[in-house]
Amino acid sequence: MAYQPQVIDAKIVSHNPKNGLFEIVAQLKDRTVCRLIYERDAAGNVTPTHINRLLKEPCPICRKDFLCNCMSKFKENISSQALDMAGTPQA
């Protein structure tokens, strides 16, 4: 069965209005916690640039206890769910 991440909670944890960068911490249904980093371009469009798994639980895909890049494959899916839940910070 393919991995299908589900975001159950998302919060904006930092926001820099000068350069348009902000971070959202998202908790997934399988207890994985991820930090998503976004940038806002001149037109106001928001794009995810990075995703990091916070090392509180083993990776649900490869089951490693250390840093891996498995969540990068699901960045767009997790990002869209997190933005729907947390919204975007006002400039």
Textual characterization of the structure:
By secondary structure, the protein is mainly beta. It has one domain (7-86): Roll (Nuclear Transport Factor 2, Chain: A), CATH 3.10.450. 13% of the residues lie in helices and 38% in strands. The chain has one helix spanning 75-86; strands at residues 7-16, 21-28, 33-40, 46-54. Strands 1-2-3-4 form a four-stranded antiparallel β-sheet. A hairpin with a 4-residue loop joins strand 2 and strand 3 (33-40). The protein is elongated, with a radius of gyration of 13 Å. The mean pLDDT is 92.
Q: How would you describe the oligomerization state of the chains in this entry?
A: single chain
Overall pLDDT, averaged?
A: 92
CATH topology: Nuclear Transport Factor 2, Chain: A
Strand-residue fraction? 35-45%
Tell me the CATH architecture.
Roll
DSSP helix fraction? 10-25%
Q: Element order, helices and strands? A: EEEEH
The CATH class name reads Alpha Beta
Q: Note the total helix count.
A: 1
Largest sheet: 4 strands, antiparallel
| Total beta strands | 4
Work out the count of structural domains: 1
Strand order of the largest sheet: 1-2-3-4
Please state the overall shape, judged from the principal axes of the Cα atoms: elongated
What is the alpha-carbon Rg in Å?
13 Å
* Low-pLDDT segments: none
Which structural class matches the secondary elements? Answer: mainly beta
Distance between the termini: 41 Å
